[in-house]
Amino acid sequence: MLHIISNPHSGRGTIRTASLLRRLRRENIPFVLHQSDTQEELTAILHSLTLHQGDPLLLIGGDGSLHTLINQVPLTKLSVLLLLPAGSGNDFARGLHMKRGEDALLSLLKDPRTLLPEYLDCGEVSLPGATERFLVSCGIGYDAGVCDAINHSLLKRTASRLHLSRAAFLLLGIRQAFRYEPFTLRLRTDSGSWKTFHNTAFLSCHNTPYEGGGCPFAPDASARSGELELCVITGRTRLAFFLGIAAAYLGGHHGLLPNVHLIHCRKAEVLSDRPLPFHADGDVTPGVRGFRVRCHPSCVPLLYVSGKD
To answer: Which of 8, 22, 212, 295 is 20 to 30 Å from 158 at the Cα level?
Structure first.
């Protein structure tokens, strides 16, 4: 039986849910709908969800709902996961070059048991007293500050309806760029030795390339690689930082700049010289000074149609 989790409060959740349900009924595809109105309801639904072996689970929502799902449902319970992107950013779907329309999804739902899912990586981050997974990225510093501003802004839902999520992230990102204070970052990866970055704006750790509605901070990140790509942007001046951000937005060419560091690793340990905002898939935790992160390979059974040639 197909189980559908719908978040009507994601960017276009209500519209996409209603349209898909009409087509499922027309195609005589049986399903059970679980609809949440709040984050608390979504968490409760996922906690109580009973999936039998082989039952496909479809999420209609964005990166935030997907983040909640992979942290509330044991990955061992997932046989097949499908996604109909309906959020404000949809960076996970973008990073996989996923076809996002209903036609592609219905081609799978007509007989999902005959198709094998692709087992994709996820990231796992350990904070003091908590461990959580992420599918897109996690980070500390400037980008987490922008996520916090987006989450508390009326721009988020309006921009999503108008397909301007990237523009909203950019506008709030520019504002945040005048407010952030550089910090000193210490980073240890698989090499085992610590490296210090002064005048750091942020560090982001990526399972897939994009965040912020389409900014490729980690252009070579892949959820099939068994490793993460880290992006560290430093700058003694705000101009140097602006150049790094602009180069990222204009096609992911920021790695050519001397103040941008792109690092591939399976695991890393991060320390900052003061408490800073931290995010995982846009979910913000304030006052974090350090964390450990690693790639959890081939653990998410996703069934989707790729739009990449």
So the answer is: 22
